[in-house]
Amino acid sequence: MRWGLPRERGRSSSGSRGQEEAGAGGRRGVGLGRYRELHRRSVEGPREFWGDIAKGFYWKTPCPGPFLQYNFDVTKGKVFIEWMKGATTNICYNVLDRNVYEKKIGDKVAFY
């Protein structure tokens, strides 16, 4: 299975993909090694990992209590997961407006 742009799109007049668009080796995104490292960090220290991710977002109301609480053990009570309980954000602002108005990258293609 092939992921990414159809063959006709994303090619220059010479028929080759640009370095900027495709990245090194013609691939996009993070490499497998980086993906594995991020996954490992998310499993071994979910509070720290997702806390770092959350720092990159605008928060209308920051998390007032514990960042993450959970119980997966039915012998210890109700099974639950609570992420950033009480925090509020504006996802549209985080994924669109910040990139257009603050980072000045509104002329860039965000997703193909």
From TrEMBL:
GO cellular component: a single term: cytoplasm
GO MF term set: acetate-CoA ligase activity
Region spans: Disordered: 1-30
Biological processes annotated in GO: acetyl-CoA biosynthetic process
Domain of life: Eukaryota
InterPro entries linked: ACAS_N, ANL_N_sf
SUPFAM superfamilies for this protein: Acetyl-CoA synthetase-like (SSF56801)
UniProt xrefs under Pfam families: ACAS_N
Domain Acetyl-coenzyme A synthetase N-terminal as annotated: residue spans: 35-95
Comp. bias (Basic and acidic residues): 1-11
Coiled coil: none
Name of the protein described by the UniProt record: Acetyl-coenzyme A synthetase N-terminal domain-containing protein
Organism encoding this protein: Microcebus murinus (Gray mouse lemur)
Organism phylogeny: Eukaryota, Metazoa, Chordata, Craniata, Vertebrata
